[in-house]
Amino acid sequence: MHSAKSHDAAVSAGGTAEIALWRQIEEVAHFVGEGNEIAAGWAIPVPGENPSRSTRFLTASPRMRQVLRSAETMARTDWPIVIQGETGTGKELVARLIHHWSQRCQGPFLAVNCAALPETLAESELFGCERGSYTGAAQPRAGYFEQADGGTLLLDEISELPVPLQGKLLRVLEEGQVYRLGTSRPRTVAVRVLALSNRPLERLVQQGQFRADLFHRLGVLQLHLPPLRERPEDISLLAEHFLELARRELRRPNLRWAPLTLLALKQYPWPGNVRQLRNMVWQAALRVSVDDTTILPEHLFLTDAPTESATQPVPTRPAADDALIGRRIPQAQISPAEYGQPAQTELATTPHWPTLRLRDIERMVIVEALRQTGGHRRRAAQLLGVSPRTLCNKLRRYRIVS
Fold first, then answer.
1. 318 and 273, same structural domain?
2. Based on the domain organization, do 317 and 334 belong to the same domain?
């Protein structure tokens, strides 16, 4: 499909066929949702361990902006914060921003994955150990709390911390002192703790898998990051950002989204959230042949993976939405009457299609392009913004005879 610049060029050239076709495409895009417009958003620099690698938190979602405003306010305090949200929603980035906005920004920022701590060594890893405290402890060693003294300690996947260790963590938070394994002498530490969880801690408390007193001590302040499906404004923004990274890495500056592809991305529930979207963009960019520059819905392989219910159940999508996410349908399941040639004005004037599919829209746009070019395939391909070979493949796929 053409970009907005191509559309403006067609208008300035006085091409009546191009104008009529694009008006129809815009009508369809408006009916289904948004077209290929990419909303303006915030781009907040996120300091990291590597100064040469710039990271930004991108969002155009009013809901996520409110979360960031709350995070900035919480950063001014010294209380622990629990940040909850599904995997891939950006919890660690928000935690880094909180550290950057806090009075401890000059101190260390140390991230620890509680799920990766060996159960037999978790206590010594967190609180340190003295020489001879256990087999293999040849030298005294400071734990993560001591290493993060004066700064921020990020405890990722806090729900995976063994229950016996949760009581010792509670004591450290209340007293501000740690006891190295193998000694009874306390060491005073000043650490701000940020705890991340992709599982609802309240539910784990009810199930007896997480200490209630630790939860209340950690959760003095709480943030919930909404999943990507609940902030659709971010999908096109992030998709364009990741595509720009792919353009640079692959040295293909002309890669761009087709409007229908962006619609497919916005209709998908994204169970893996931003991380899954990033991977999908790279995979789609690699699937585009060297002769083409447009990422089409057929380059997306969006599956029906179950959505992680970390904070709330996934809302049920209507049947019409299922077809809008670019799912492949076996040819044997397609009724020939389902793809009958539309009337000239059907694309622009149909007020409601309860069984609308992306492939329906694409087929009708191709048919209209062929009609306006008198069946000339090369001119139709130019009008649609795709290569002649891509158009031929779609003609065979949709069984269109020009």
1. yes
2. no
